[in-house]
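cron nightly-structures :: item 1 of 1
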Amino acid sequence: MPKTETDALQMLHDQFIDDPDGEALAICLQADNKAIGYVHAEASASHDFGYGMKRAAWGHGYMTEAAQALINQLSISDYPFLTATHDVNNPKSGAVMQRLGMQYQYTYLEQWQPKNIPVHFRLYLLNRDGNDQRQFLKYWQQYPTHTIEKSER
């Protein structure tokens, strides 16, 4: 996460403006129209769905509302499914995924960059085109340490 406004603006340009990959929305409060976060859907093969928000704005439902707004505007033909992951130590992010209708698939261990620390990520999948048999096994196959947590099913 960016530490300063300058870092945030650089991230905005690097990831969304200068070389866009998919669709993104800034999340702004109506009261002052200042950005408090973002939501993004990659056009890549994984259709990765990601988001971030200032900690002070957590717990008000803004992320779920913004994420649902982006999902609603994505064409199903271009985005037949979405994937999303969250660190097991951030279950509130997983709760957002569940409120969006995403289904838990599996958990995998990745040596996460840029901090170079081991992180267990939970992968969620949202099938949007009616193919409820679809699985997204990329990370299951890529990382040798993986499991299906019974408590998440």
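cron nightly-structures :: done
Helices lie at 5-17, 62-73, 91-99, 138-142.
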